[in-house]
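Aim 2, interim progress: modelling of the adenosine monophosphate-bound target.
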Amino acid sequence: MESRKQFRAIKGTRDILPAESALWDWFEQTAREVLASYNFREIRLPIFEETELFARSIGSDTDVVGKEMYTFDDRDESSISLRPEATASVCRAYIEHGMHLLPGNQKLYYVGPMFRRERPQKGRYRQFYQIGAEVLGPSDAPAIDAEILEMLLVLFGHEGLMNTTLYVNSVGCQQCRPEYVERLREELRTVKDKLGPDSQRRIETNPLRVLDSKLPEEQALIEKLPRLVDHLCAACRQHFSELKDELRLREICFEESWRLVRGLDYYTRTTFEVTATGLGSQNAICGGGRYDGLVELLGGRAGVKGIGFAIGTDRAILSIQEGGHPPALPGLSVFIARMGTRAYPIAVNIAKKLRASGLVVELPPEETNLRKALGLADKLGARYGLIIGEDEAASGTFTLKRLADADQKRLSESELLEFLESERRGLGA
Ligand code: AMP
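Predicted structure of the complex, ligand included:
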């Protein structure tokens, strides 16, 4: 006999099954509501773009562009890549649609999958999901940075993610960073032979990334390196100091972290990260920062400023599952058990009415005996069994049985609808 291949999801990708997807829906819906309350509006973006868009914005020396993108040639031979992140796409869309002509700053958010060919492990996947927000426009006031950090923490509070830590830093601008990077490079050259191969390579390609190193043997050396926060120009220093005042005004707890440089080239001034508990080494659930020159770099107007963040939904949900406070989500409210031919049209009809009133209703496609029907209702976690037998059909009534304690009552249709409606409002059934 021909052997049949068993297909499996590709390494680093996974299925989110119904047992979890309700939590995902709730997480994303909660995020949408909080983002909307800060006047952010959704932008829906393509999942692939020209490869060059990512190379130019994220930087070709970064791991993301250098090693991790899923890139392929389209038939017309242009190179396209699955998006590894969405900030570049938001900026591309901002430029393409002339959004600088719209009044004020544009506050945009997106929700969806990203693709990076990383080594899969807990909290790290090749297809993962982000909820991100960006503010693009003429102003770079520190109040913008502070507002999005406030929004993030409000959001994590609503999501039941209590044990989070916010780290902030400033990575300077085109005026002050190049000089610091040179200084750092020189300093690193003097200790080169004490560094691992990755850091040695980065001395020439991207010395800031050495600060990201997690190698235990490099930590003491790194602590002695010159710090960018001590070499900011006056304007960047003032921006950072005003940001910290703004955060205090908003009663936001934060820690300064001078090594938080982030992996992508386009950041200027403010960078930040939020970590959560229960995640092991992949404990960052959100990262972001300011990218004031990016729109111009991508061919847009000079002077457009930008700042944004991306929440890693996979990790945030893992953290909620492993010690946060997952909400009680509504499940199956009513399972209909019907017996006899007369009961069937009544069951179809009442199912429609109950669903229209917002209840989750299961009407089994085949008739079984009452014991079996209620057994299945119980296994499915239904709150109520709605019994329609010969008796009920003849008298135009319904028997409603609460499955938790077997309490049951006989009701007319209007009593039934009224009772279940008040239950739904009271219990979120
Ligand atoms: P980044 O776009 O690298 O700034 O990442 C922002 C957030 O996305 C991180 O803090 C993570 O929570 C999440 N993230 C990034 N890469 C992955 C991945 N491969 N798997 C799961 N989550 C990721």
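The radius of gyration is 28 Å. The chain is about 40% helix and 20% strand.
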